[in-house]
Each structure stands twice: as structure tokens, then as C-alpha cells.
Design a protein that fits this description.
Layout (H helix, E strand, L loop, with lengths): L2 H13 L2 H8 L3 H15 L4 E4 L2 E4 L1 H32 L1 E6 L8 H11 L4 E6 L2 H9 L5 E9 L2 E3 L10 E10 L1 E5 L19 E5 L4 H14 L5 E6 L2 H9 L5 E3 L10 E5 L4 E10 L6 H13 L5
Length: 307
């Protein structure tokens, strides 16, 4: 009986859906289904019943799920103990970060921390927010530098980091999204722009791995614009997106921190409030590991509410 199988069972119970469990675990739905089936075969009971799109535990499954919750809680406690021992024995901290670019100042923050704490080895793992938060919850990273997107005051995405009591948060900065166009584009002279005015435009977008970004745009287009945006091209990074905008392939929506000072590019304020908050995130624990605590304190004293 492997822990991975138990995680799949618990996720299906928690999210009441095989597809959502697979999404949250970053697994394929077929893998989650197979792992649940393996536990059912091993125990010779049926754990779940389907009701439309939702999944509910059977009466026998409810008792098993209580035991699985205890096992997973104890497994997390073991990982936490290992994390503390590893940090204190190896003097090492693992930081999950978005791709480091000059405009975000994240590299500067980590480099300054390392310089002021030369006794600490710093390892950086670059990824987008959702995998970083999943890695944090699994004790695979000590710190996650994550982003939360908003349309007006509505939180976008599957994590509401600022209101989730599982996490300790140091808020880094919040910035607004702008429309980015080539200076030769007809929109470039506008003082501001409404999302509804972009109906005829072709977009160059960061790809779907940036889930929170796309969920924010979906919410904004659904709320303010009765059209589906025309996607001319998608790319895995903002640099490529900006290169394509520079060549007038289309327009994009990004924050000023993401857009370097490039003469052919013009940023136009949106009338609607689309924002992104960047924050330093750690797990809330009875005993926060030593160097995790060091980094949180350093971020709070030196970088919180940076612009």
C-alpha cells in the first residue's frame, strides 16, 4: 500500500472528482483512477460511488478515509521532521521561484539573502505557482515565491493564498496588468483601454502552464467582454511573447515588472483592475525550520511591499 495511492484516494474524496484530484496532484486522470482501483482491490471494498459529476465515499469508504487521513497527516509530520534535520544538518534552504527575470527583483532578493547568510546553501527550483505550492505542501521546497491574480477584488485560481491558514505569507508587491502593443499599433496612442475594445485584436499569450494568469483573463473576459479572444500564438515565456509583440504579431496583457524597457513596446493601462500579487510563502507549522524562518524574516524586513 503506497503513500502515492493513498494521496490519490484522499484527493478524490477531498475534491469529490477524479478529474479535479488529478489536476490538483499534477497527475493524469487515468493514473489517479488506477491508483484508487489498486487500493480498492487490495482492501477488497468499493471506496466511492458516482453521482453525476461528483464522487462520494461509500459507507465502508468513510472509515477507510478516516484512517488514510491519519496516515497522511503522520507522513507529513515525518517529512517536516526530515525538513528540519536537513536544514540544520546541511544548512540548506530550497526556494521555489518563478522564472527569475530582472524586472521581478526576485533574483536580487535571493542573492542578497545568500550574501548576508553565507553559512546557508540556497537551492532554487524554478516553476509556476501551482507546482510550487504543491511542492511546498509536500515539503519538497521550504519557501515558495508565488503569485495570486485578481480581477478587481475577486481571487482567481484554485488557491486563495492570502486567506489560507495553512500558509505564512510575507507580501512582496502587487502590480497591475497592462495591454502591451508595438508602438506602430493603432492602439498605441490610447491613454487607457477597455477590455471590450480588444474584440478584434489578435493576442500573443504565455502558455497554459501559467494557470493563475489564464484564470484571471478568463474571469475578466467573461465579466467584461462578450467575446472569445483570438489567440495568434502562445509561448512558454514572457520574453518570447514580447519578441512577438515587438514584431507586431499581436498584442498581449502583462505587468510592467515583466516588460523591460524596450522602445518598440508601449504599455496601455486597462480601465478594469487586473492585478497580480507576488508573495513569499511558507507552511504554517508548530516549529518553522530555522532557515525558512530566517528567509521569511529577511523578506519582511527588506522586501515586503516592494514596488
Amino acid at each position: 500500500m503506497e503513500i502515492e495511492y493513498l494521496r490519490c484516494v484522499w484527493a478524490v474524496f477531498h475534491y469529490k472528482s477524479f478529474s479535479e484530484a488529478a489536476y490538483q496532484l499534477s497527475r493524469s486522470q487515468s493514473t489517479v483512477s488506477k491508483n484508487v482501483a489498486k487500493i480498492e482491490d487490495e482492501l477488497n471494498i468499493r471506496l466511492f460511488e458516482r453521482a453525476g459529476k461528483n464522487v462520494y465515499p461509500t459507507s465502508a469508504g468513510e472509515g477507510v478515509l478516516q484512517a488514510i487521513e491519519i496516515i497522511l497527516r503522520e507522513e507529513a509530520a515525518i517529512r517536516h521532521c526530515v525538513q528540519i534535520v536537513r536544514q540544520e544538518a546541511q544548512r540548506k534552504i530550497i526556494i521555489g521561484s518563478p522564472t527569475i527575470s530582472k524586472g521581478l527583483h526576485i533574483g536580487s532578493m535571493i542573492a542578497s539573502f545568500a550574501k548576508e547568510n553565507p553559512q546557508v546553501e540556497v537551492e532554487i527550483i524554478e516553476d509556476t505557482t501551482y507546482p510550487q505550492i504543491s511542492a511546498l505542501l509536500a515539503h519538497k521546497v521550504d519557501i515558495a515565491i508565488a503569485t495570486q491574480t485578481f480581477v478587481e477584488q475577486t481571487v482567481c485560481g484554485k488557491f486563495d493564498l492570502l486567506n489560507d491558514n495553512r500558509f505564512v505569507i510575507e507580501r512582496y508587491y502587487r502590480d497591475r496588468y497592462y495591454v502591451v502593443v508595438n508602438k506602430c499599433h493603432p492602439l498605441s496612442g490610447r491613454p487607457d483601454i477597455d477590455i471590450a475594445d480588444l474584440a478584434d485584436e489578435h493576442f500573443v499569450m504565455i502558455d497554459q502552464t501559467y494557470e493563475g494568469y489564464h484564470e484571471m483573463l478568463s474571469e475578466a473576459f467573461c465579466r467584461y467582454a462578450p467575446f472569445k479572444p483570438k489567440i495568434a500564438m502562445q509561448a512558454s515565456g514572457s520574453e518570447t511573447v514580447l519578441d512577438l509583440v515587438e514584431k507586431n504579431v499581436g498584442i498581449t496583457i502583462l505587468t510592467p515588472h515583466t516588460v523591460p524597457d524596450r522602445e518598440p513596446l508601449v504599455l496601455i493601462p486597462l480601465r478594469q483592475s487586473l492585478t497580480r500579487e507576488t508573495m513569499v510563502v511558507a507552511l504554517r507549522q508548530r516549529r518553522i525550520p530555522k532557515y525558512t524562518s530566517f528567509f521569511l524574516r529577511y523578506a519582511k524586513q527588506n522586501y515586503t511591499n516592494a514596488t
